[in-house]
Amino acid sequence: MDIASDYVDYARGSRFQDLPPEVVDYAKILILDTLGVIIAGSSAKGIGTFADLLRDWGGKPESSIFIYGDKVPAPNAVAGNAAMARANDFDAFHEKAMVHITAPIVPGCLAVAEKIGGINGQDFLNAIVLGIEIMARLGLSLESLFLKTGFQTTNHIGSFGNALAAGKLLQLDRQKMIHALGITYGQIAGTMQTSVEGTVMVRLQQGFAAQIGIFSAILAERGIDGPQEVFQGKFGYFPVFHQNRYDPALATRGLGREYEITNVSIKSFPCCFLCHFAISAMLQLRQEEKIDPQEVEQIRVRINQGVFNVVCDPLPSKRNSTTAAEALFSLPYTVASALVRGHVTLEDFTVEAIQDPGVREIAQKVTPVVDEEIEKQYGRAMGPAVVEVSLKNGRKTSRRVDMVKGHPQNPMSLTECEEKFRACLRSSAKPLGERKASALIQALRNLETLSDVSQLVDYLR
């Protein structure tokens, strides 16, 4: 039998009552984090245009486009909201599975909950967790992910996870839930080319992925069927997209007993996670060594090949980013910002900030190189990174970072997560105000007690 059957059986049998307390607590933190980055993403380039199009199309008023306020059909609402979640590349990430794991699931479940009405906090949390658990295992099972295949597996996996989470909320029977996965498979798409070039499509791809999952679950609910051997069939996902290079044991291991959600990292910096290790190393050097940017001769950053391919190549354009979409995927720019400003924040990706002469000068001195030892030991991983700074007086210094702030083994505190949420509010396309922000935080703290999670949306428009 195809593992689609295992996933469906897990999804249909999952219950909030079986979730460990630490899983529930972390799920609530991840939801808060995701809603924060959605709010910040509402003002990113291309998002307003996308939201306007979705609003112009109109349709049955089922679910809200956050911040912009209008209600549209649920698949269209989640397309806009998930695009906002990925807009600034500030959303949570599962490092080992290498997927943006909350950006599709949280807005997807909220859209379906609002469409249905009356979904309580416990059922909502359970749907969030099961979607994340499926996504994580699919990512963990793959031998080669986007760093080598060129496929944006976050989009693929996010579509599957959303289909199952939506199917759970819609209370689909077993056969219809399998059909939802099959219908999803017929639509998945997304490549890394848009990330390499730093285009707005990075944001919209995530929206389309989330939309596919919701749309597929609704189609299955209406009686449309799809293929059943979704993952392991002759032309299933694993053979077609990954040449059968996967571990079937990892694809299902521990479902319902072990929880990968607790291995999700919360981002400290609003940019591609591949840059975070070098940023952290540079910030350490700046603080501990009191480095004056004017005295820097060269900055050498040692990384693995996958990191180089996405955020360092082609080097001339990565050193000379002109838009936020480009700068988010530029190791030279983000490392230069860390050195010159002492931080990498949402404000560092405005047009004015990207054109800062001091930062651009330092970016020209950043030379990334593939370290053979790092590649050998950590070829699939995001890190580590070693930053080596050579000063004009001949002095050299370096730092290595293997684990960034926000990883569950180096976690952000609840207070830090709330501070990140409030920082995101400053970038909203429409001011929400302190009252709404505080009310939303309080509601999420007690999410499992809510009788209808649709009331969360009232704080997001």
- Could you say what the CATH topology of the largest domain is called? 2-methylcitrate dehydratase PrpD
The geometry reads as: globular
Question: Largest sheet, order of strands side by side?
Answer: 7-6-8-9
Largest beta-sheet characterization:
4 strands, mixed
* Class per helix and strand makeup: alpha+beta
Number of helices: 22
Termini Cα gap: 45 Å
Q: Low-confidence segments, ≥5 residues, pLDDT <50?
A: none
Helix content: 40-55%
- Tally the beta strands: 9
Indicate how many domains the architecture comprises.
2
Our estimate of the beta-strand percent is 5-15%
In the CATH classification, which architecture of the largest domain applies?
Orthogonal Bundle
Determine the CATH superfamily of the largest domain. Answer: 2-methylcitrate dehydratase PrpD
CATH class of the largest domain: Mainly Alpha
What's the pLDDT, averaged over the residues?
95
Describe this entry's structure for a reader.
The chain is an alpha+beta fold and 461 residues long. It has two domains: 3-268 and 411-460, 2-methylcitrate dehydratase PrpD (Orthogonal Bundle); 273-401, 60s Ribosomal Protein L30, Chain: A. Helices cover 52% and strands 8% of the residues. It has helices at 3-13, 21-41, 47-57, 74-87, 105-116, 121-141, 146-149, 153-169, 174-185, 193-197, 201-221, 237-242, 276-289, 305-311, 315-319, 324-327, 331-341, 351-354, 357-363, 372-378, 414-425, 434-445, and strands at residues 63-64, 71-72, 93-94, 99-100, 264-265, 296-303, 366-370, 385-391, 396-401. The strands form three sheets. A four-stranded mixed sheet has the order 7-6-8-9. A three-stranded antiparallel sheet has the order 4-3-5. Helix 6 packs antiparallel against helix 8 (153-169). It is globular. The protein starts with a helix and ends in a 16-residue tail after the last helix. The mean pLDDT is 95.
